[in-house]
Design goal:
By secondary structure, this protein is α+β, with helices and mostly antiparallel strands. The chain contains seven helices and 25 strands. Strands 17-16-18-23-22-24-25 form a seven-stranded mixed sheet. Helix 4 runs parallel beside helix 7. It is globular.
Length: about 475
Amino acid sequence: MSIVSMRPDLRRLIALVLLAFLVVLGGCGSGKADSGSVITNRQAESSQPVRVPESEPGSEEAGVRETRGDARASAQSTLNPSEPASERSEEERTGQEGRHHEPVVSRQDRPPGSKLSQDGNGSGGSAAAGEGADQVTVIDGVAYRGYKGPVQGEVKYKEGTPASENAKTYKASGDIESPYKVDLIVTRDFGHQEMFAKTVGLVRDEVGMEVMFRNLDIQTAYGGGFVNAINGLESGYTFYTGKDRKKLDWFYWVNGILAPVGVAEYRPQPGDVIWWDYHDWSVTMFIPAVIGSYPQPFKNGFWGKNPGTVVMHTPTYQGEAERLKQSLESRGVKQVDTAPYDPEVLREPKKYYILMGLWDELAAGSEVLNDVNRRNKLVGVYVKFEDGEVKALDFKGNTVSSHRRAGAIYAYGSSIGSLYPVWVLTGTDEESLNRALDILIDRPGAIKHYFGAVVTPEGVIRVPYLN
């Protein structure tokens, strides 16, 4: 039956139904168009999505003198592609471009990984009360006083990113009160000069750059994940050319291990020691391990993973190895064992090893140790054993002082990006080795912020020397 042959009242009813259907269909089409425009806008944004602040960002554009493509940015990004950062959703990577924003932590400006309840409150959610330093923000049931949300969130370095991209300067916004803490250390010239050293608040699951934004004046580059300047001390390389360009830059270690990811990707764990140092890298590009965060890395490991510690000793030092084990346990190290010295495990270490013994005994039969001793400054080691003496080196590998009777404490990495440093506790003679051992057991503060140490009867020498 055709519509034309229908009764007039039935035709009118069908017409009204069709009209209503067209209205609904038109509304749905309009809704899809709007949704599509939102998605398109997001896709047009940069790879690090940001929430547009309601007022002007607090950061300002850094003075860019000249920009050139520079792979050197990888020094603060991924050094070991086989150890990638955990994949995060777009929402988890979302941060903010400026510092001025609403104090309430919303779905857009909460730390990655935190859970927000439907009403914005409760143990599974996030809520804020108060203003400024007295503001209390609750995330996943944890209260943080003075926390205003992240500045930019996670940023992953992309090869080929120009230095000028997201080159901005951020003024320190102030520390927060938190049940979670990390030690933030800033030095220059291989630890010789301390610029900042405090235990500061941490928001669980935030990236390390956010800790820095709160406590230090930071200039970023290469997309926002590269630290170009701290408290006004700027890279001598990034924005310079020709004779004005110098190989002076910032490098950072987590628990004494050179981080294989950028600080805008690394998520600190409570108790971590984050140490930045500004130094000349014209001779040594990377220094894989340092000793000045002891008892780290043996206590915390790296990124929440701890493979365990083994004190490997030569035959006559089993008792001393047990003493060191007990000392480490008293300092909170949970996984520590002792074992006879086996140089073969040094080829591909899978745990943290502390080697203990006289140098001649450790070096005998160990191609790895002898190679590290020979290459020294090229692999970030500034102690050299030669002709029965311990030589303390400057950062260029030159001998500054020689000692016939001395001990040494230093660390090296099996490769660039290795997460398993090897520590060497040794000496020319028994008395000198015991003197170095006593430093770790009784006076670890004597090597605080040291890259390496030579222990003499007169005292502890910080290496490398500057000149």
